[in-house]
């Protein structure tokens, strides 16, 4: 109620809203180290000349700014981070039973996503400055006991609390022991930025349940140079965000929908593996060896999508860069039923919004080892239904189409839980396509890939990856270009990964040496 009143007040007091917006864009709010200062502080005030305001109240006003001026894919301000800090102090924890540290803002990879555009004089502070406000930094045991399943599970909670108790007992013998803390989570300014980022990436790959989420942070601003000190698979956390991060679920390309596995990713040079001959260290630290399989090679790509406002949205131009026949009037071609049973133009438009995953919001990631397959399919189907209804609304709004021309969209959207929204379709397509390329593989699969990709690059699925990845051959090794959305149903729901884990698929599995 109070927020609604304030929003209305700022709508009528435009100058006041602008002043608040300018205040929240001051240099203080752009610095990484200020996150810990504001989060850990128990009593913090904001003083401007003779005026003083409770800092917590100021942070809660960030939501009003979002309401007042909106937010789009080009917004690189840290408002989302400061809103998270403000809400964290007044809202109950999402997982009531989970032993989350008091001053934690969440998991470290999630924090790294929203501080990508903040400033730090020393790039090593990207990791070290948030250790005191992240789950893994404050309580390392949580980083070792993470699962893809229900984080509020009583069994998982008991395991975590028991492990924390045991670690604290051992650490009480000598404060220097810190038994559960991985070396990558210990500030060490004697190491280079590359080594810190690389070792942190390996830590994320080695911990349970061994998924490849950290590789989704790889966003190359230019083609990786062979002479560069940074391996292509190590995210440059100090570079500004280039694209929006893909949603974590329910896409599970490299996580088998059937069977139980202690770890999902198959990493060959992980020193924690008992069968690793280099347990005391890694022989080639800048190489990363992961198992997976090739899906297809890229045949055609669009130019990088560069629209900065979702009102400037011309999918027909992108289509013309993939095909020599127009998107309008409607073509008769069908998408390959092996991937999805739908018309070609619908498959293309759905690719722009991740097959409808964008319409689901931050969907909960469920454990494929315990969740019923039908539940996973229902979530994906719901996203597709919403996306198809939004696409139909956009076609009506922008092209004045008759519903009979797109009868299947109308039929499939009947089960949607809300009305179609043309603006939402444009906004979601803008959010996820900007600075990426749409592509078509040799077998006709649509995808949404990295800006630096080109024809001849290879789409692969790596075990443990939620999304497929785009790789480029470099002599005997591979360069990681980034993750990619692929319009391929059986890959999307982990069915192909299950096949590859079995005897029938083992012939296609290979080890990719990422350099």
Which structural class matches the secondary elements? alpha+beta
Distance between the termini: 54 Å
Query: How would you spell out the order of helices and strands?
Result: HHHEEHHHHHHHHHEHHHHHHEEEEEEHHE
Q: What about the largest sheet?
A: 8 strands, antiparallel
Descriptors for this entry?
515 residues; two-stranded antiparallel sheet; 8-stranded antiparallel sheet; single chain; alpha+beta; globular
Report on this structure:
The protein has 515 residues and is α+β, with helices and mostly antiparallel strands. A hairpin with a 2-residue loop joins strand 1 (45-48) and strand 2. Helix 1 packs across helix 5 and helix 16 (373-399) crosses helix 18 (422-433). The strands form 2 sheets. Strands 3, 4, 5, 6, 7, 8, 9 and 10 form an 8-stranded antiparallel β-sheet that branches. Helix content is 35%, strand content 11%.
Topology:
Elements: H1 2-12, H2 14-23, H3 33-40, E1 45-48, E2 51-54, H4 55-60, H5 62-69, H6 79-90, H7 108-114, H8 125-128, H9 135-138, H10 140-144, H11 154-171, H12 193-206, E3 288-301, H13 315-320, H14 344-351, H15 357-360, H16 373-399, H17 407-412, H18 422-433, E4 437-441, E5 446-449, E6 458-462, E7 469-474, E8 477-483, E9 485-486, H19 489-492, H20 495-501, E10 510-514
Antiparallel strand pairs: 1-2, 3-4, 3-6, 3-10, 4-5, 5-9, 6-7, 7-8
Helix pairs in contact: 1-5, 16-18
